[in-house]
Amino acid sequence: MGARLTTRAVVILLGDHGYSVRTLDALAAQTVAPDRVEVVASDSLPEQVEARLTQELAAGRIESITRVSSSASVASVFTGALYRCNCDTMWVLFSDSVPGPAALETLQRTMREIPDSVVIGCTRRGRAGLPDGGTADDSRELVDVGFTTTMGGRLVTEVEPYEIDQGQLADRSDVLAVAFDGMLLDTEVARSMGGVDALLSDPWMAIDFCRRAWRFGKRVIVAPQARVIAREETVKAGSEQDRASQILERFKRRSTPGAILDLAFLPLLTLWHILFSIAAHRVGDAWLHARAFVTVLKRSPAVLVRSFHEAHRAKVSRPALRRLYLSGAKTRTLWWETFTESVWASDDRSVRRRLTRTGICNVVDERPIHGQNVQPVAGLIAVLFAAAISLVGLSPLVLSGKSVGGDYISAESLPDTAYASFATEWVPQGLGAAAAIDPLVRLIGLWPFTVHTSWLLLLALPFATWGAFLAAGMFTRSAPGRVLLALSYALSPPMLSSLMAGRWADALALTLLAWAAWSLARAMGRPPRRPSLSAAATCGLLLVPVIAAFPATVFALLLLSLVMLPFVPGRRLRLLWLFVPSLPLLVGNFSSWWENPRTLAASGAVLGTDTPARLREILLLWPQGMPQIASGAPLPQLLMLGGGMIPVAIFALVAVFLPRAAGSLARVSWVASALFMALALLTARTVVGVSDAGNLTGVPTVLLGFTMLGLLAAAAATIDTIRPYPSVTGRLQLLWRRAVRFTAAFLVAATGVVWAWQLVPLATSQAAQLAIPAASAHAQQLPEKQRSLVITVGQDGSLHASLYTGKKDAADVNADLAAKRIDGSWRVVGRSPEDAADKAFSSTVAALVGGRDEELEGALAQLNIGYVVVNGNVAGGQELGTRLDTVPALQKVALGENFGLWRVAKPSGYAQVEGAESPVIIPVSPGGIEARGKVEAHANERVVRVSTRADDGWYAYAGKTKLQPVTVAGWAQGFTLPAGVGGEVSIGRYETGATLTAFAAYLIWLVSVLVALPLRRSHEEDHA
Fold first, then answer.
1. To 5 degrees, how large is the angle CA 450–CA 509–CA 520?
2. Which end of the chain is more exposed for a tag (fewer CB within 10 A), N or C?
3. What span, in angstroms and rounded, lies between the C-alpha atoms of 933 and 923?
4. pLDDT tens sequence across 283-297
5. Residues in CB range of 981: below 8 A, 6 or more apart
6. What are the tens digits of pLDDT across the range 491-515?
């Protein structure tokens, strides 16, 4: 290249034209004028710009004007200008570039002095504070002095935002890439490289162009003394096109196998970005990453082919360019700084401390910081006190490891059938039933671990206390007041009633309600606290087990949302997160609730009670009626019936008359409590089932828990109003406030002590339960899945029979998951009282206890009964035992004082082939639904029987032959096995939507968890 360089300046007038005239002025004022000037302008320019172009063209300072569409891309314009260029070099300017007077001179001098330089870039400066008529030399704000990327493809300018140019980067020369703004390039080399890649957007198009120049053995230089104003990017940083171009540029600079590997892992990387965007409350970014992924899939074939051809023409290897990229150590440092900045809020600690030192009255606590340590200490004391009550009163439950209170399903019984219980509408236990599955069972079915219900009861009091203490802290900063409110909730009638009855699901729901109340208060926000979307999602997740345990809670939440809506600042749609996590449970049961709305009033895993609470008891918050108190001192009786509620009730009543925010909170809380109380009364009067003792009604424990929380919120307003602020100096005021606190603390503490003493016999009685002998329990674990028939003899001589299928030794493992007894003693209202399966079961039991031995052996085999267990009083049990000893189909194994065990002589299985000389038992999977086994062909037609209720959902194959379904004995599922057909017999159910259902549930919960993560608040949330 000669010493004299001819230069063609190409001015691209697209987009914003506010600086177009300035750019033309700056071009005319260059110390070294370009040899030729071409203007590429859009077909619609402002009149002022058009007039200036006409003037320049007439004066001969512009050689030509090329018109393009206003929507033309930079790539097409750049490539067209490159191939029209008839000079050694081409200088690229845009409508808002405004170069400094010596920019072209500096660029030409640099290209002449540095050998092999093919692309020379300028220092880019910002336009902030640029005076009228000024050029890039008059701006001090740095945008970049060339740039590089990390090996992962992240753009790095190594310039801080709004950094002032003080010559700190004046010695920079070789860089990975420079921007198109003010770029001077060697025309001949640029053409041989093929121009720019139109599949990429700026700045990745410029990065790719400069990287290919390096691969061609040339150099990319930045001239710090040549300055130009940075243009407004045509493609917004962080947009779909920008993200897609970043990925595609990374593909191009990698080897072909590496790019293909990157493409294979791109779905996982995209999923990570989507999840992180959701967690950071940037849902728009999540959608952006998804669209960018689609764009990359469309363009990647052409990009990979182009990269392959360019690699074969390259003269420099990829490893030789590593020095141009950001080092690994600097990349990791940059990643960590960005991550911490985007994840954790940067609020000042003193601000956060101030926000946590105000109550509902917004009075800042003026005590020194070390005095605030009383808050966690007070909470710890309250939790330890509740734990002591729980250990003393409920330890027999943990020691026995068993709990059957409230006739609930034991969570320990579910692991074998957990996924099936969630993803299908088929109940595998008992004789099976195609019915809507209880929401609580659907939820437990997805737990990855076994839950011991006795531990749930034991931990309910301390965890409820902890959650209520945190929730109270959102309304008052009085440590004694928070302890009072926390213990009042933990020792409230709904919680104590649940512990008395052993209703672990209700106790779990009440515990989570306290934590949900804390999250809801944070989600609403109140000055000076900001509303929190994370807290709203957390509240929704905590409410999932609550809604599962008591579906009617959905209506309570709807009412609560309507009451709170006028008081929620900013974006009220965040309250939808109270319901979103529960959608997987609600949708699966919607049709059954629509057909029979009464079942909404039933608690999860159990229908109801035959002794509903009276109106007075509901008003006193006792969901199952007041406990029977033995005669004794009046104070313990008062405390047993809710003496700890007296201070809460008084404080809540007083709060209604308080002024400002405290009074508003109290009045809203009373309205909400009244709505919950009305729903509780309706639930207690709704018949949800029938039993031998009569109608069963709902138990409104959870609704009364909502009512209790409303009263506590109102009481918190009073406590925060009367708490002794440091500014209060009146002796009389301090005395009466301390007297009130002492009285309230005494009542609550005394209530806890009395209940710790009273719960011992209650827990002991709950722990005493029916047990299945080990031999019978072992038979239920075998592949044959033989059932146990348990006959209980009551004190009055009555008999109660049940079927059990499970692997635990407790008789409660098979409480019916479809909310109806297997023996037909009670059923859901609206269903037929007895079907063919129930009749077969009842007739078999009647034959056993009534002396009818005809065909008893076959009936026991059809029900797949392997053992008969008798439990009951001495006289009744011995009389029945004597009768069973005479049954030919049974063999006595053991006979004790209160129980007996007999084995069925004829072996049977859950699934077996009948009709040949001897039945063939087909092993069953651990889930209790699918069966698979080898069956030899036979000359006669046979029947494959499955000991479960027949319906259209079953299928069976013998090899590749589909078997025709039939009904066996009028109720059991069967299939016809034709003569001469054998091989691998597989039995199962059509569950085409099971995987999709489970995937949708996990996806909703995953998104909810991500939103609930306490990451940095988004801009929209900060200003909500």
1. 120
2. N
3. 6
4. 778 888 888 899 999
5. 937, 958, 959, 961
6. 888 888 888 777 778 888 999 999 9
**CA quadruple 197, 201, 202, 208: dihedral sign:** negative
d(CA 458, CA 756): 12
* N-to-C CA span, the chain: 62
Tell me the backbone φ, ψ of residue 215, rounded to 5 degrees: -65, -25
Please, which residues bridge with residue 790 across strands?
802, 869
As a 3-state breakdown, the chain gives helix, strand, coil percent values, each rounded to 5, of 50, 15, 35
Kindly tell me the burial class for residue 63, based on how many C-beta atoms sit within 10 Å of its own C-beta (0-12, 13-18, 19 or more). middle
For residue 931, what are the β-bridge partners? 924, 987
Q: Where are the beta strands (DSSP E) in 859-968?
A: 865-872, 890-895, 899-904, 911-914, 920-922, 931-935, 942-949, 954-958, 961-962, 964-968
DSSP track, 56-119: HHHHTS--EEEEE-TT--HHHHHHHHHHH--SSEEEEEETT----TTHHHHHHHHHHHSTTEEE
Give Cα separations from 494 to 344, 546, 701, 709 (angstroms): 39, 14, 6, 11
> How far is it, in rounded angstroms, from Cα 292 to Cα 41?
30
Measured CA distances, 179 to 90, 96, 206, 211 (Å): 14, 14, 6, 12
- Neighbour-count burial for 688-698, b at 16+ CB within 10 Å, e otherwise: bbbeeeebbbb
Residue 598 DSSP class: G
> What's the confidence (pLDDT) of residue 607?
56
CB neighbours (10 Å) of residue 659?
A: 9
The pair of structure tokens assigned to 913 is 């082939």
Higher pLDDT, 462 or 43: 462
Taking only the tens place, the pLDDT of each residue in 927-949 is: 567 788 888 888 888 888 888 88
State the Cα–Cα distance between residues 455 and 435, nearest whole angstrom: 30
- Burial classification of residue 383, based on how many CB atoms lie within 10 Å of its CB (0-12 exposed, 13-18 middle, 19 or more buried): buried
**Contact by Cβ (8 Å): 560, 604:** no
- Whether the per-residue pLDDT at 811 is higher than 60: the answer is no
Structure tokens at 124: 């880019």
CA distance 348 to 341: 13
Structure tokens at 439: 């929401």
Distance, CA of 158 to CA of 149 (rounded, Å): 10
Give the separation between CA 910 and CA 356, rounded to whole angstroms. Answer: 61
* In the block, residue with structure tokens 């065990």: 901
Residue 88: how many other CB atoms lie within 10 Å: 18
Helices of type H across 886-993: none
- Smallest CA-to-CA distance from 12 within 50, 65, 56, 48 is with 65
CA–CA separation, 864 vs 349, rounded Å? 67
> What CA–CA distance (Å, rounded) separates 697 from 602?
8
State the pLDDT confidence band at 38, using cuts at 50, 70 and 90.
Answer: very high
Beta strands in 709-845 (DSSP E): 787-793, 799-804, 827-828
At 418 the pLDDT is 47
Mean pLDDT: which of 258-262, 644-648, 768-772 is highest?
Answer: 258-262
